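Continued from yesterday's entry.
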Amino acid sequence: MVDHPRIEELRRRVEKDPASLAFAHLAEEYRRAGRHAEAVATCRAGLEFHPTYLSARVTLGRCLIETGDLEAAQSELRAVMSAAPDNLAAIRGLADIHRRRGELQEALDYYRWAQQFAGHDPDLEQRIRELKAEVERGGRPAAQPGTPPAPADARESAAQQLTTAGSPGPADLVASPPMIPPPQSGAREAAERRLVVFRRFLEAILADRGRRQASR
């Protein structure tokens, strides 16, 4: 099989220098071409040299979903969110994992969280409408423990809110310690914005579940 010129160029660069950051671009090109197994192998090799390269971990997680390894995909995407709680691709990837498992409420929570960062996204809005209707029609499958981590300074207060509300699902949000240390050069303002968005997300979940409980 003859490779696309872009793939061929990147592959040669990585073969010449296995520690090259070009591995992430090569893996993403493989993903776009539907060559998920090759993308997974490329990501894993490159991450041996660059374990904190978040975009490569996102690509790895997305490809693992496509190959059916949902547990490994979840681990990778949670690692990304430990360092970047507002990473839209990671949030949507985790939503897709829960949806494939039939964990509809968890998937809905993640898609709603993604909407906080995506703005007007017709595809995302459609998914949210469809999932909301499914949850309202058929109830909610049992949740699997542990999913996205909250920002470290929000975990304690978030856990307290969720415990007080008696809500079983989003407690996952505070369950996991960081797997990748966040960049040390991040601005304080960016961290504060992430925290505000996260708190709004939790408030929206609690309000929605309160309405559903009151209507039963």
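--- second protein ---
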Amino acid sequence: MALSNLLKTLEDSKTYKDFKKSEEGKSAFLCAAFIIINAKQNSTENSLDFRNDKNIFTFKILDNEVLMQKEELIQSQKPLEKIDDKQIASIKADAEDIQKLVEKELEKNKITNPIEEIIAVFQSNQEEKSLIWSLTCICAGFTIVSMKIDALSGGVLRFDKKNLLDFVSVKKPEKK
């Protein structure tokens, strides 16, 4: 589903309308979208994150309902920035395009392992004045691909391939 459609579904929900009427909801702004694509089960999970100065509000968008979860905001050197609603209308690499973009890049880089899961994070990048998809792709055969895609141009900014075993270190037991 396109990001603009996810936002429309959220904005039409009673949960979101009640939230925006609340004191903490009035100052909250969209700061991220999370999409988990399970290629094996052909399923997708979507959530949109809003934040204010103190909290982050995650709205999980399910088939017939919207659920909200509130967490205390963890202060960071690089806080989640506001996503400009006007830029969303200009997206060339949208949520519904992610799997095809990943498959194309895998083929281009001669990676034949099938995709099992894609974890996509959509957020604003003020340094580059753009919107970015940060993707972690888990493929069969312990292959992990990390990608960054400029959502406004559709261009791949970074592509890294790793093997899950690169993250695991085995220590030999010490002899006594």
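The chain has one domain: 3-11+31-167. The first strand starts at residue 29 and ends at 38. Will compare against the first tomorrow.
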